[in-house]
Amino acid sequence: MLAVVLLKKAVFLSESALRPQPVQGLLATRRPFIGAHDLAALHHALSLREQAAVSRVAAITAGGSEADVILCQAYALGADEVFRVPWEGDAGLTDASPVGRVLAGVLAGLPAGVVFCGHLSPDSGRGLVPYVVAQSLGWPLVTRAVKVQMTPDLPHLRIHRDVGRGNREVVECPLPAVVTAVRYPSGWRYPKCARLLAFRRRNVPTLSPPSSPGMPSEKRWLADMEMTRARPRPKKIFTPDENLSAAERMKMIVSGGLKAKKGKVVDGSGADAASKVYEVLVECGYAPK
Amino acid sequence: MMFPRLFTPLTIKGVTIRNRIIATGHLTHFASTDGLVTQRLIDYHVARAKGGIGLIITESMAIHPSTAQSQYTIRLYDRQVLPGLRELTSQIKAYGAAVFCQLHHMGREMTSVDTMRPVVAPSALMDPLKREVPHELSKAEIRELVEAYATCTAHAREAGYDGVEVHCAHGYLIQEFLSPLTNHREDEYGGSFEGRLRFAREVIRAVKGAAGQMVVGIRIDGDEFVDGGLSLEDVQEIVVALVAEGLDYVGLSVGHDLNYPPIFPSMDFPLGCFVYLASAIKRLVDVPVYTSHRINDPALAERILEEGHADLVAMTRATLADPELPNKAKEGDVDGIRPCVGCLQRCFHRLRLRAPISCLGNPAVGREREFAPLPASQPRKVAVVGGGPAGLEAARVLALRRHHVVLFEQEEELGGMLRLAARVPHRDELMGIARWQILQLKRLGVEVRLGQRASAKDLAPFDAVVLATGAEYGPPSLVVSEQVPHYNTLEALELGEAEVAGKTILVVDRDYHNKALGLAERLAQMGAQVVVATEEAEVGVDLDLVNKMMIWERLRELGVKSISKARFEGANGEDVLVVHEGWERVLRGVGAVVVVDKPKANTLLAREMESQFPEKAVYLAGNCAAPRLTPEAIFDGYRIALEI
Ligand SMILES: Cc1cc2nc3c(=O)[nH]c(=O)nc-3n(C[C@H](O)[C@H](O)[C@H](O)COP(=O)(O)O)c2cc1C
Ligand code: SF4
Fold first, then answer.
1. Of residues B269, B307, B553, nearest to A235 (C-beta)
2. B469 near B625, Cβ under 8 Å?
3. Which ligand number lies closest to the CA of residue B169?
4. d(CA B251, CA B217)
5. Mean pLDDT of the A56-63 span
6. Which of B223, B268, B283 sits opposite A234 (nearest CB)?
């Protein structure tokens, strides 16, 4: 089975027609890059390959030849194949809907079992393309994936979704399907130098959609598996210093952890408070005798 | 709901735990001497399951014939235990609690009394507490133990457990392999971090292999608290490595043979003082983490969950003291929860005495059937005389059974001896028991007559009378020197700073429990130089090990000295001659002597009743029957209230 990752050529915010330009000038290079969500999508596809759930991973982008640079990055990160769908306009901003339909047409001609996209791109950030692709193909769409596994028995994906505030929902989704990813999981992937060099020797093949894309196949439904609530992050809590001796650490705990922090208590009447405090300051060396 | 997080279910690998309150493994000595499950053990756990607890981890069970904590240890390696265990798990589950099994090998931290086999350990290093030199395990023996863990996991599965917990804490076999202090091996099971980790890894893999759908977790010490031993950072590294083996949860604990008291933390330890260990682990792993140790209050448990330090909160002794704690917390009835005060008197200490456990405040522990307070068939008018722990308990249970109760107390305040006991440093929590009893009397509408010394005549109209008139301290039973003032326990408690500061005070222990040590601490805190002496082998000879170790930590800091096996052979004014095992020693400048005697039963009213109303049903509870300790007094009160 083939896993396809749809990558968008992202550019810095200053390129965006819909966003203000807060860092213009600073970011003058305008080099295209893969956004964080798209990277997460690529990661999920590659990890499915590592689990032997898919045999190959193909990365596809839409755009002119300047978009090849992100295909190069995807190849260096481990994609088996890369394709570009020629597109003249602005693939992410104003053209999201037609681009989505064209990509769907291309996908309909591939043996793709699962299509991964980033949930939002860092520049336009509208997240429309995956919806259009899924709708055009008639495949289920699962958004905001943070963890993707193949179920052992069925051709289903078990997908952990980030449903906000740290809460997670787990769904099982029949294949083929479109999945959007939101967060790069732990375990960073690094581009391989040999693959970067190999990419230079390749011509990026282009794919064009058939003139009339196929109709949506029969409806498929997601199965809700479970909903887990957010695990709160531990707040800071008093922890004895590891550099203290074991006996000292234990003493701190038995004394409520406050031993080292406890200040000096001065008691007496309010009238001599000032002089008593002054005595303490002298004692501690903060005030002259 | 008052504690929403506490009552949010948690699912671990398909096992749903209905709330976050758990009981960690605790040996009960309710099994038979053949290590078989008894009805008593089932009743004990069923009471907790009915009380609404989320998860019960049953007591540590022996995985191999080379380990036994006592003759009451359940021998999980023997298939004979399975029918009993099946009954136990099915009954616990019938009341909605999940149940895990703790797999245990004690390593060197045991004696061979019960197994009659050599004690085994990774290295032949003597255990400082049990003082037996172990046999160093060969590789073949290690393999046999790993297989034993797998076999016992299969047994637990057959017995219907939802999960198993591999005991890697408390200085037992697995911790002995993990720690550089106890693992001096030079083969692949020792040396480097990886080497020391190997046995734990192999055990977890074997257990996972045999567990099927069961949950597999560990319990591990978060810090060994011994220089050169495992620190929190080391444990973090170990846990991350073991979680990678597929653990479903991690439980944090603390304490072992080189640092014993924290295993059974007494009231010297602040509430929730080891939560930080779980917090440090929870930061690193994705699986649920539990914390334990001195968490006896649902509000504290809720806060621990809210602040994200743990996913489950062990309230082991808290639910031992009050099995209904979860239900009461759910209903917001916080005042109804009988507190665990961390006294250790009837749980841990009875284990050491090789007796079945119970609880200071809850005599029904281990007697769930016989001690169920059923309503009286014929409600009667009952007078209880004395508002100490025995009288309060009798009045409470009598009222619970719908008798009409009047409680007489000659003082203006209830609490009796508990009030005095709580005046000794670090024992103030004891008063929590009396406070709870008093609150229950109010709820039950018991008539309390304070400041009224009941006479035989006052008691005549009642159908039955419970006398709980306590005991009194007479003049000191020993005079060390005629020229020096002598005080009894009560008088010593009244001494002020001005009377003791700068003086050398000799405290003579003839009570053999904690009182002499507690008084020594109190006097030393007020500036006295204190020497505690006893004719016995040590001061506080009958006090449990943990409380004794903890108080000596503080006494040492206060410069308190002790003389055991002491005979007072004479005195010259303030100079006292003491003989100790043939040595003679002169204690110079002794300014005061405190003789801590056992009190004498106050039987005045009992005798009066006997002479004036010989037909009347009169019961003696607590110290007035025979001077003993608080748990026995409460037990008397409860027992008698059931008999009426
Ligand atoms: C009577 C008794 C028996 C215990 N036996 C075990 C045991 O078998 N296994 C274990 O891991 N911990 C054992 N412990 C320790 C408890 O699991 C728990 O860690 C300890 O009581 C502190 O927690 P708490 O303050 O919530 O009670 C025992 C404690 C007590 C009081
Ligand atoms: S005996 Fe003491 S420490 Fe043990 S459970 Fe009861 S109150 Fe708690």
1. B307
2. no
3. 1
4. 7
5. 94
6. B283
How far apart CA B69 and CA B27 sit, in angstroms, is 9
* Residue A270 pLDDT class (50, 70, 90 cuts): confident
Mutate to test the interface with B, among A253, A259, A261, A262 (most CBs of B within 10 A): A253
B608-618 CB burial, b ≥16 within 10 A, e <16: ebeeebeebeb
- Answer whether 0.80 is exceeded by the pTM: no
Tell me which of A229-233, B509-513, B608-612 is least confident.
A229-233
B557: distance to nearest CA of chain A, Å? 11
Measured from the alpha carbon of residue B221, the closest ligand is 1
Tell me the count of A-B CB pairs closer than 8 A.
64
> Would you say residue A222 has pLDDT above 80?
no
Ligand 1 atom at shortest distance from the alpha carbon of B59 = 8
Q: Tell me, in angstroms, the distance from the centre of ligand 1 to residue B26's CA.
A: 5
Interface test with chain A among B5, B10, B179, B223, by most A beta carbons within 10 Å: B223
pLDDT, residue B176, reads: 98
- B638 catalytic? Reply is no
For residue A96, what pLDDT band results from cuts at 50, 70 and 90?
A: confident
Taking all residues of chain B, what is their mean pLDDT, rounded to a whole number?
Answer: 96
Whether residues A232 and B232 touch (CB distance < 8 A) is answered with no
C-beta atoms of A239 and B225 within 8 A: no
Percent of chain B at pLDDT above 90?
A: 98
Which secondary structure element, helix H or strand E, spans residue B611, and what is its range? helix B604-612
Shortest Cα distance from A254 to chain B (angstroms)?
Answer: 5
Give the binding-site residues of ligand 1, using a 6 Å CB cut-off: B 24-27, 59-60, 102, 167, 169, 219, 253, 263-265, 292-295, 314-318, 347-348, 351, 357
Q: Which CATH number is B10-352 given?
A: 3.20.20.70
Hey, of A167, A227, A250, A255, which one would you mutate to test binding to chain B, going by the most B CBs within 10 A of its CB?
Answer: A250
How far does chain B reach from its first CA to its final CA, in angstroms? 39
**Residue A56 φ then ψ, to 5°:** -140, 155
- The 8-class DSSP code of residue B639 comes to H
pLDDT at site A261: 42
Q: Examine the pLDDT at B527 and tell me if it is beyond 60.
A: yes
Cα B472–B474–B476 angle (5° rounding)? 135
Hey, what are B576's tokens? 């006292």
Q: Domain B381-473+601-643 is classified in which CATH homologous superfamily?
A: NAD(P)-binding Rossmann-like Domain (3.40.50.720)
Q: Which residues of A touch B279 (CB under 8 A)?
A: 234, 237, 239
Residues with CB under 6 A from ligand 2: B 317, 320-321, 340-347, 359-361
Within a 10 A sphere around the Cβ of A110, how many other Cβ atoms?
A: 15
Per-residue burial over B529-561, b if 16 or more Cβ lie within 10 Å, else e, is bbbbbbbeebbbeebbebbbebbbebbeebebe
Domains and their CATH numbers in chain A: 2-211 (3.40.50.620), 246-284 (no CATH)
What DSSP character marks residue B506? E
Using a CB-CB distance cutoff of 8 angstroms, which residues of chain A are in contact with residue B231?
242
Residue-range domain boundaries for chain B: 10-352, 381-473+601-643, 486-598
Nearest to A77 by CA among A145, A7, A179: A7
Give every CB contact of residue B152 below 8 A, 6+ residues apart in sequence.
B61, B63, B76, B77, B103
Q: Distance between CA atoms of B591 and B505, rounded to whole angstroms?
A: 6
Q: What is the C-alpha radius of gyration for chain A, rounded to an integer number of angstroms?
A: 28
Task: Give the model's pLDDT for residue A190.
Answer: 87
pLDDT of A262 higher than 50: no
Instruction: Say which of B172, B249, B473, B638 is annotated catalytic.
Output: B172
CATH of domain B486-598: 3.50.50.60
Report pLDDT for A12.
Answer: 58
